């Protein structure tokens, strides 16, 4: 099956898919479409975002859905609001020509009353986050009696966010006769357990492993000291003209600093991180999707909900700790059959980290040289011609009579002059600027290096000043400081358990949430090697103490006590 037209999908679906520019099914689509169309077994599919999995499960289901019934037949559960909106949008696109099919997205952080109203439209398809779906079940706003298909999308992510109980409730509240499809990037114990308990003799498919590295991405690294990093970044951007890229940073602070630096230097860039309100993040994502900005500086978590296919470059301004994150970040480019470039800025003392990433991912990362001013201008000239020869529309009427007599110039002279005008600003910038001193990776171990620690402390201190809010932005508003309304808890898990701040936020949210209850204020979160501390509003003290011991994180028991 090399073309969509070779699938047995209905003409309405093929037409919509064709309009989206899809020609051939992706690997996962090749495997799932015929399976779902013809088999009644449950399914476990190992696949990451970006593989085309939304179409993989929704196209065959759309093909089989009963558009004469106004009952919910198809439910998709996914971890975040952004993903939920994305999936709903994709399904709406795929069902564009199926006039009786309605899809509704339901997710937290948005008015439940409005969502209840939109359910009155009687959609056949619901895409939701587990918490909100449970709230709606409790309010009797969802009737799941006719569900045929249930998709758990990013099941590993939902479980690590603490949605285990919600998933189990939903799985048991839906008809036993349904077909369940579990999609996950990784297969861990929790995912196995859920599939064992709730899926019947599932068929398994896998599209590459988590560490599968796309072959069409070229990986480069550039060594630059802490003080040179921003200038080095500017040179990398300038020597790769016409780029549409995401620059990944480690902290919100760093993200904002890098974005500010780029904006001050005249780039169409902006920042995306958890210190922004949801509305601000939506605006930035929209600007980036519309290409009003072509460089997005983002934290890993904030960039998760962004679905953009045509990135030319991914730049790692700072290396992530986890090699898997490196693969995920880089995999944002090189999509939809295009080539991609991943460029990492590496401090001399980070040689061990680079080695770890190379050996864990088996990616070949080639050293590049930070471009000289001369190299930048050369690349820019290339970019001008690339633009000139690219297909483009005529944006305005042009009267040849406006062209003055040019017979006094040769062709070369004219091109030189035009290029001088076009590249003047850059040329002036680089004219008297020294090229960066070439740096070598040091053989010294990185982890204990003072510089590294100082950078980290600096960022951590500032992040704390701003109040530790979730990257996901469920908590927005003014930065918080430690105050008397907070109780400080000792928490038995730490970095060794792969606990991240976002996990702690989710755990606290879960332990303190309840019907009709306002959200608990969360203060400082400090994750240490073996344990952690967090602060929660006093009125929620008992909820934390009583609920946390009954929850698990990655299969581990949790314990919270009031800290001395
Ligand atoms: P997903 O893994 O579902 O997040 O899909 C990743 C991206 O690939 C989405 O933006 C889809 O629109 C796009 N996509 C999915 N299937 C195809 C296909 N067969 N051909 C081209 N693009 C696709």
TrEMBL record:
GO cellular component: cytosol
Keyword field: ATP-binding, Helicase, Hydrolase, Nucleotide-binding
InterPro entries: DbpA/CsdA_RNA-bd_dom, DEAD/DEAH_box_helicase_dom, DEAD/DEAH_RhlB, DEAD_box_RNA_helicase, Helicase_ATP-bd, Helicase_C-like, Nucleotide-bd_a/b_plait_sf, P-loop_NTPase
Molecular function terms, GO-annotated: ATP binding; hydrolase activity; nucleic acid binding; RNA helicase activity
Helicase C-terminal domain ranges (all copies): 228-377
PANTHER family in the cross-refs: ATP-DEPENDENT RNA HELICASE RHLE, ATP-DEPENDENT RNA HELICASE RHLE-RELATED
Protein name in the entry: ATP-dependent RNA helicase DeaD
Gene that specifies this protein: deaD
